[in-house]
Write a structure and sequence with these properties.
Shape: globular
Helix content: 40-55%
Number of helices: 19
Strand order of the largest sheet: 8-3-2-12-13
Number of strands: 15
Oligomer: single chain
Low-confidence stretches: none
Length: 477
């Protein structure tokens, strides 16, 4: 297998390099960039606060019973997407494995990589499909129904007949699919994704945990969020201001008056309303129906697990930075934030030069009509902001949402079997780097030994270096 490191990241943002170089403003915002010293400081905080706890009981994996009570955790996480989702899932797991391995060796103590399944999320339309690109260059999306829609995932069910079909169509590896199907249980929604991660990284020490299994440790966090909404809004407002000072958009609206808590009622997970005076009493009666908002989720994780470092994608780093001071509000330990590795798979070694030129070239052009729409939207938001500048963060979020919607519409013909064009290619499907779009299961299935493929992915991870984009080749079917 060949590996080539490019000069810069394509998924992560340009600010990652100055952050790793010690830029004071960025360090104040994101915390210290990944380093042995930064991780050691967080580890000492956990040791000073450690209680016996039962966190190890929530772990899944062949080696879960070998975890020591004084172990530390390098955490990665993602929604349990059908067939494992895009390659970024494997890249997060590999980054966690690589970092835990380094820290364990240096500290002569157990530091374990753990992948958290976001089973308390509810965006079923984001997890019920997986994208492939066959040799003809068209994008192909396979779906597996999830029911009920818009409910916490761990309360949902896959259509298991369709799930088996999708796994077989994506993997083309009967033995691997049989093992995954055998490990899939109706009672654990994330089981087939956990089984895939175990195939690739289990021998390297990766364990998994479902977010809803940590809810007991998070009940105090949710209770406070329900009863002290203003303190949480103040933290998000200060975080938004800090992001704005370095030219980044806030992820969360600090003017939203609702508590940072969601509730499952009538098979729907919804944000608790600001004027819902009975929510606190319902929480006392039925706490398992409640779950944390994205900004509060890292606090629950920090309360439940001794997380020394958290592997993140670029958008996650921004929203974790905005909400980082919530750790102080809840007396929790803030982990080191670690950018996940990013990589694109190249089908044969002869394509490396062409791939490098393609990925480092200009961004894929957008449709002229799409550009005109977005320019009109920005003129509109500028006019509204001129009347009330406090609306600027909200307006910028609206523009980002419109950009995503317009891109999906522009991509729609490629998903309907139309020939690939300038906006769709093997290396940049949908105009984005491959690892953010295409499934990793075909690579795993094509490898003679899944664990060897996992070791190859881990070997590319450099968690203590500023991220760059990586090209790598391997077997295909």
């Amino acid at each position: 297998m060949t590996i080539r490191r490019l000069a810069r990241p394509l998924v992560h943002r340009p600010w990652t390099t100055p952050w790793f170089d010690g830029d004071a403003e960025l360090t104040s915002l994101f915390g210290h960039a990944p380093s042995i010293d930064a991780a050691a400081r967080v580890g000492r905080e956990h040791d000073a606060r450690r209680s016996a706890g039962s966190w190890r009981a929530a772990l899944h994996g062949a080696r879960a019973d070998q975890v020591a009570d004084n172990a530390l955790v390098v955490l990665a996480g993602q929604q349990p997407v059908v067939a494992g989702g895009a390659a970024l899932v494997a890249h997060k797991a590999a980054t966690a494995v690589a970092m835990a391995r380094v820290l364990s060796g240096l500290w002569d103590r157990q530091v374990i990589p753990v992948f958290l399944m976001a089973t308390q999320d509810h965006d079923t339309s984001e997890i019920d499909h997986v994208d492939l690109m066959p040799e003809d260059g068209t994008l192909r999306r396979l779906r597996c129904p999830v029911s009920p829609k818009h409910e916490m995932f761990h309360r949902c069910r896959w259509n298991h007949g369709v799930l088996r079909e999708v796994l077989g169509e994506v993997a083309h590896n009967d033995a691997l699919v049989a093992r995954i199907v055998a490990a899939t249980t109706p009672t654990r929604f994330a089981s087939h994704v956990a089984a895939l991660l175990d195939e690739a990284f289990g021998e390297l020490g990766l364990l998994t945990v479902d977010a809803h299994d940590l809810e007991g440790d998070g009940r105090g966090v949710l209770a406070r969020a329900l009863n002290d909404t203003q303190a949480h809004r103040d933290v998000l407002a200060r975080g938004a201001e800090a992001l704005q000072r370095v030219g980044l958009d806030a992820a969360f609206d600090p003017d939203d008056p609702r508590p940072l808590v969601l509730e499952s009622r009538d098979d729907q997970r919804r944000r608790v309303e600001a004027d819902d005076t009975s929510a606190a009493s319902r929480f006392v009666d039925n706490p398992t129906a409640f779950s944390p908002h994205a900004s509060l989720r890292p606090i629950v994780q920090a309360k439940a697990l001794p997380v020394v470092a958290q592997v993140c994608g670029p958008s996650e780093i921004v929203y974790l930075a905005q909400a980082r001071a919530l750790h102080n509000l809840h007396d929790a330990v803030a982990p080191v934030l670690v950018p996940r590795m990013e990589a694109s798979f190249v089908r044969d070694d002869a394509s490396f030069d062409e791939a490098t030129d393609t990925l480092l070239g200009d961004r894929v052009p957008i449709l002229a009509e799409e550009r005109a729409l977005l320019e009109a939207a920005r003129r509109f938001t500028d006019s509204v902001a001129a009347r009330d500048e406090r609306l600027d963060p909200r307006l910028r979020r609206w523009v980002r949402s419109l950009e995503r919607s317009a891109r999906r519409l522009a991509e729609a013909p490629s998903f309907r079997g139309k020939p690939a064009d300038a906006r769709t290619s093997w290396l940049r499907p949908r105009g984005r780097a491959q690892d953010s779009v295409l499934a990793w299961l075909p690579q795993l299935a094509a490898a003679e030994h899944p664990a060897a493929w996992g070791a190859h992915i881990v070997s590319m991870a450099r968690p203590f270096d500023a991220p760059v984009h990586i090209l790598h080749s391997g077997p295909t079917r």
